[in-house]
Amino acid sequence: MRLALALVAVAMSSSHLRGQAATAEGPYKVVKSEKVGGAGGFDYCYADAEGRRLYIPRSGARRGGAGRVTVFDLDTLKPAGEVPNAMGVHGVAVDSKTHHGFSSSNPVLMFDTKTLATVKTIDVKGRPDGILFDPATSHVFVLSHSAPNVTVIDSADGAIVGTIDLGGAPEQAASDGRGHVYIDVEDKNNVAVVDAKTLTVTAHYDLAGKGGTPAGLALDAKNNILFVCCRNPHTAVVMAADSGKILATLPIGSGVDAASFNPNTMEAFSSQGDGTLTVIKENSPTEFVVEQTVQTKQGAKTSTLDTKTNQIFLITADRGPAPAPAAGAADGNAGGRRGGGRGGQALPDSFTILVVGKSS
């Protein structure tokens, strides 16, 4: 009897390991790693598929110091210039029609995407963090963890057209291109639905305990499917964008901070600070599976999608040893912005751009 039980246990363990291996295997891999260096912190990155540029904000090397937006050729990763004097910058959005770019900073910098020259500065309130360009209204949505939660800017002239109260701290936004903007609210465990024309919140989709601390949001606009990627627990909650109905929950890595959806391949991507990129395949509007877990690099928690090449770009830096936690301190991976294996101080000139694509 003991022998039989042992054999069953071995078989179950082997089956589990095979399942893990199958998840790790797949068509995607890191196809390029470019150490570009440079001082300062970093947060979101943005791939302008039409303009063929990669925008990476770098905050000041010292707290309170002036930051900048570094710009790279999206195809070669060679430096293409920078936008200076971006205070506390976190992200970038681009309107390809007006050739205007916007930094999520205070003030917001409106710049020419061809010359990278600053067009104007826009004073805003709150603490700018995430940012989104909505093509349906030609408006830029600047997200803030403090009030006002959203400041909306006209991409043509840089005028502030209004603000929105979400009732909590937003993380990432997605537009369906038809007048709806979806924003995950990190501290309220819901997704806010915004009428992009009237700048009003029309609904809050609760995660109903299926996920918490949502930090990444991706949208299949054609089929109205939201992928809400959460830090606590490490779960992607798949929802119907028109009703908030929960369709599925899937496991992801630890420390998510960005997500995207590729309509060319019908895949959602969730990047995590534990050094993984989760690939979720939408087989149909009602069937979703984790297709692959790609090993990237520790700390690569933000990402952006190039819809022309179907490649995903991630950013990270090597870090020294993590400081010892204070007595009684909570686990940093339980949620919040530091989750996902973040270590100590970034090592000088170790900043790296990773490119994930399909194996040839």
The largest β sheet comes out as: 4 strands, antiparallel
- Helix/strand structural class: mainly beta
Report Rg.
Answer: 20 Å
Molecular shape? globular
Mean pLDDT value:
90
Number of domains: 2
At the first level of CATH, what is the class of the largest domain?
Mainly Beta
Name the helix and strand elements from N-terminus to C-terminus, one letter apiece: HEEEEEEEEEEEEEEEEEEEEEEEEEEEE
CATH topology of the largest domain: Methylamine Dehydrogenase, Chain H
Q: Helical proportion?
A: under 10%
Task: Describe the fold and architecture.
- There is one protein chain.
- The chain has one helix at 2-24, and strands at 28-35, 46-48, 53-58, 66-73, 79-87, 92-95, 100-103, 108-112, 118-122, 128-134, 139-144, 150-154, 160-164, 170-175, 180-185, 190-195, 200-206, 214-220, 225-230, 235-240, 246-251, 256-262, 267-272, 276-284, 287-295, 302-306, 311-316, 352-358.
- It is 6% helix and 48% strand.
- The chain folds into 2 domains: 27-35 and 209-317 and 350-360, 7 Propeller (Methylamine Dehydrogenase, Chain H), CATH 2.130.10.10; 43-206, YVTN repeat-like/Quinoprotein amine dehydrogenase (Methylamine Dehydrogenase, Chain H, 7 Propeller).
- By secondary structure, it is mainly β.
